[in-house]
User: What shape does this take?
Amino acid sequence: MDAEILNLLRDPAGVPFYPVVFQGLYILTWALHALFVFLSLGTMGLSLYGGLRQKNDNNWKILTAHLLQTGKISVSLLIVLGVAPLLFTQVIYDPNWYTINTLSGLWVVIFIYCLLVGYSMYYWYYYANKKQSSTSSFIGLISFLLLVFCGLIMHVFSVQVIQPDKWMQWYAPNGVVDTSGTNFHIENIRYIFFIFLSIPVVGLFLQNYSDFLQSNKNFDEKFITYTRNLGTKIAIFGLILSLVLFVLWTFSIDKLTDILSIVIYISFIALILLAKNLKNSYIITLIFLVLLLLISGFREYIRYNIMNNIGYDIYSYPLNIEWASITMFVLTFVSLGGVGVTFIASMAWKVGKNNGYFDASKDKAVTTMANMLLWILSIWCIVYFAWGFYTLFKNSL
Ligand code: HEM
Assistant: This one.
């Protein structure tokens, strides 16, 4: 395909900041989205197994409830964190993204309903498990499959956007225009690789979980050791499986000996050794995050190369720097996002470390952060609306 038409489809207003920054933010935020995709599918999948074991095994009774709770929160985080890479894609690869949304329009709509029903059913599963209902596993399974299917739809969009040479053939097969919006083209090995990454993630989560509970007197030593060993086994198995799948994927796309692929193989091997031998699981998780960033970078590297080779170069996107919106973005990110996330994370951490009971009003750091957050949020709302109305009316008044 000739990129001339794609270049014409670019936003005539240009991009508000250097494209490489959007590209970096895309890589970062997709890795975060993926982290919670893997955590939610991994914890949910393991909770389905735990549901079968919990009647006769007290360890699994405690664990299943906690896995379910973790998965429930992770789905909401994966949705929120999915919006960010979506926006960055739309800024630098807008012709690709909108073309695919047209070619597979019906699947875009199905995705929304699938997510809505799948996540609602997760809550049903959660409460059914709490009541020890006999149908809970069945409800959980349907919810799990629906969420895995959401991932498949997302995967279809991701691989279709990087095949511009096939768009015409999909749009008008044999010269007849097809407006059904039902294009659905899968790259099996890539999808399996991503979904199976949920296995090492749930393993690493269990290692963190057991390290975290060590200081909590409500959990006995046996349970903590049990979850630690289980986590280590799952993490090692999952990492080996993911490495094999990654090699198969790079082989299928002719990137087996690419330098970035080799760095990722080495990172996988290092993680396998660390997951087995290192005592501090938080360090292993941090290294896993680096690996996830590399994988996210690899996805973008594939896309950038394909598009660049046909003449669509994001770095030559027309530039129209808008300092005002950049300032608003950075300030929101640092003040609201930074303080907000630190506040919620430290509260959650302290609740867990205080044997399940924590009086936030007596904690100086948490109270200060809560007050700061209220002020920042209030000021942010005033600035946001005042600025918005000023921009809206400045030309017409
Ligand atoms: C349970 C629901 C979801 C699952 C399991 C899921 C899973 C995935 C997976 C596996 C990929 C990578 C596909 C590939 O590269 O082959 C992906 C990509 C992506 N997802 Fe999600 N996702 C979900 C929901 C969402 C939501 C709600 C959003 C947005 C609000 C979102 C935004 C994205 C974006 C922007 C990409 C990258 C697309 C691209 O690079 O072209 N996802 N998702």
